[in-house]
Specification:
By secondary structure, the protein is of the alpha/beta class. The chain has one domain: TIM Barrel (Alpha-Beta Barrel), CATH 3.20.20.70. The protein is built from 16 helices and twelve strands. Strand 4 (60-62), helix 2 and strand 5 form a beta-alpha-beta unit. The longest helix is centred in the C-terminal third of the chain and has 21 residues, at 304-324. The protein starts with 6 loop residues before the first helix and ends with a helix. It binds flavin mononucleotide (FMN). The site of flavin mononucleotide has 27 residues, from helix 1, strand 7 and helix 13.
């Protein structure tokens, strides 16, 4: 039975053990044209990318997962070791707990590794007044950056989760201005958490000084699903019903990526990315790099070696896709011919 005492631990256990994704794989709807005569040697393929002023060995970031409970030390340590070893980026989970003194070491552990891009994390709902809770000041965001020596701070938009979970922070007015205020002081990126960014939202946030968007679209982890399992365990029928109803709420990740393209900002493609072909597909659709969370979670609970192996498979699959499309580098891959099929195409055509 899932304990409701520690929300962070619940999230990890639920995401590792329950079905939290809607089931349809939107990334498989993107098909790249095969190049039978690629004229490039696999060993010469350059998969490196630059984002937020940092160079990654291949275009992948392990996005925010955890922090703030004792079990998170091992998970973040395993992820950080793997990302340092392979030369890719990582984010930590929401740092609210850490800067309130709850297991700060579960975040700061990433400082022990030479990760090329470290991303902090705070929630947009915590930047505005929420009934009885104190809001985050700009100084607290600075403390959150210092806790992990962050290169950039991700502000997450998670209103799907907030509206489904008991006592969620559902005041959303003023978030955009609060993010604008933060962006005057710190490098900021805006991320969703599994429901995607629409064109309208991308337009509304592109001019407020942020440096990038992680679209985190629908198709992977659904926080409605996650909260459904917690509500069920607490015999909360209302929240259980809401969790079921909104299980697959959101904009499919590839659709969201195409929508956010109008911002002209660097884009992280995430939400249901499971393998290196999905990463290749996202680059072909305009992403600067891709992001994974749930795809490496079980490995992160085991060891750094397990995470390295999983991420190496993704890297080698990306390299294979680049060879098979005749792409010596990511710029060429971004221009490779592709088609969009299935449900993703239906989404695009029905607007
Ligand atoms: C266990 C778990 C905890 C998460 N916690 C956070 C968080 O604290 N802050 C955040 O911005 N996103 C959080 N996310 C969302 C991920 O960063 C990502 O946007 C989302 O899971 C979609 O990616 P995926 O389909 O690859 O899992 C979490 C995801 C998981 C699986």
């Amino acid at each position: 039975m899932i304990s409701i005492k520690n929300r962070k631990a619940d999230h990890i256990n639920i995401c590792a053990n329950e079905r939290v994704a809607p089931g349809y794989c939107y990334w498989n709807d993107i098909r790249l044209f095969h190049n039978a005569l690629p004229e490039v040697n696999a060993d010469d393929i350059d998969m490196s990318c630059h984002i937020f002023g940092k160079r990654l060995e291949f275009p992948l970031i392990v996005t925010a997962i955890t922090g703030g409970f004792d079990g998170a030390v091992k998970i973040n340590s395993n992820i950080a070791e793997a990302c340092a070893e392979l030369g890719i980026g990582m984010g930590v989970g929401s740092e609210r707990a850490g800067i309130n003194g709850v297991h700060p070491e579960s975040y700061s552990v990433v400082k022990e590794y030479d990760v090329p891009l470290v991303i902090g994390n705070v929630g947009a709902p915590q930047l505005v007044d929420q009934k009885s809770k104190d809001k985050f000041s700009n100084d607290m965001v600075g403390q959150a950056m210092d806790l992990i020596d962050a290169d950039i701070m991700a502000v997450h938009l998670n209103f799907l989760q907030e509206v489904v979970q008991p006592e969620g922070d559902t005041n959303a007015e003023g978030c955009r201005d609060a993010i604008r205020g933060l962006a005057l002081e710190y490098p900021i990126l805006v991320k969703e958490t599994g429901a995607g960014i629409s064109r309208d939202v991308a337009i509304r946030i592109k001019g407020i000084g942020i440096q990038g968007i992680d679209v985190a679209g629908m198709g992977g982890t659904s926080f409605s699903a996650v909260e459904l399992y917690r509500a069920r365990d607490a015999y909360d029928n209302i929240r259980t019903g809401m969790g079921e109803t909104f299980f697959d709420w959101g904009i499919p990740a590839p659709v969201s990526l195409m929508e956010a393209g109008c911002s002209g900002l660097p884009l992280i493609a995430s939400g249901g990315v499971l393998n290196g072909l999905h990463v290749a597909n996202s680059i072909a659709l305009g992403a600067t790099c891709a992001g994974v969370a749930n795809a490496i979670l079980r490995e992160a609970m085991v060891s750094a070696e397990a995470v390295i192996e999983k991420l190496t498979i993704i890297r080698e699959e990306l390299k294979a896709a680049m060879l098979l499309t005749g792409s010596p580098d990511l710029k060429t891959l971004s221009k490779t011919r592709h088609v969009v099929l299935g449900e993703t195409r239906k989404w695009m055509e029905s607007q």
